[in-house]
C-alpha cells in the first residue's frame, strides 16, 4: 500500500504555471484512460 501512495505522490505536480499543470493532468488522464481501455479489452 505504501508503494501505491509513493507512486501517486510522484504523479502530483506542484507548479504555479497553469499551462504546465493542465498539460501534466492531461497526460496523466490519457495514461489512465489507456490503461482502463487495455484492461477492458483483456477481460
Question: Could you characterize what this model shows?
Answer:
This protein has 43 residues and is mainly α. The chain has one domain (2-42). 81% of the residues lie in helices and 0% in strands. The protein is built from 2 helices and no strands. It has helices spanning 2-11, 18-42. The longest helix has 25 residues, at 18-42. The radius of gyration is 13 Å and the shape is flat. Keywords: Membrane, Transmembrane, Transmembrane helix. The chain crosses the membrane at residues 21-42.
Quick synopsis:
The chain is mainly α. The protein has helices at 2-11, 18-42.
Poorly predicted spans: none
Largest sheet: none
The H/E string reads: HH
The pLDDT mean sits at 85
Q: How does the overall form come out from the CA principal axes? A: flat
* Rg, Å, rounded: 13 Å
**What's the structural domain tally?**
1
- Fraction of helical residues: over 70%
Our measurement of the CA-to-CA distance between the termini, rounded to an integer number of angstroms, reads: 25 Å
Class inferred from helices and paired strands = mainly alpha
Number of strands: 0
With helices defined by DSSP (H or I, 4 residues minimum), what is the helix count? 2
| Beta-strand share of residues | under 5%
Amino acid at each position: 500500500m505504501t508503494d501505491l501512495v509513493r507512486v501517486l505522490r510522484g504523479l502530483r505536480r506542484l507548479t504555479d504555471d497553469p499551462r504546465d499543470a493542465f498539460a501534466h493532468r492531461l497526460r496523466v488522464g490519457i495514461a489512465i484512460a489507456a490503461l482502463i481501455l487495455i484492461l477492458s479489452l483483456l477481460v
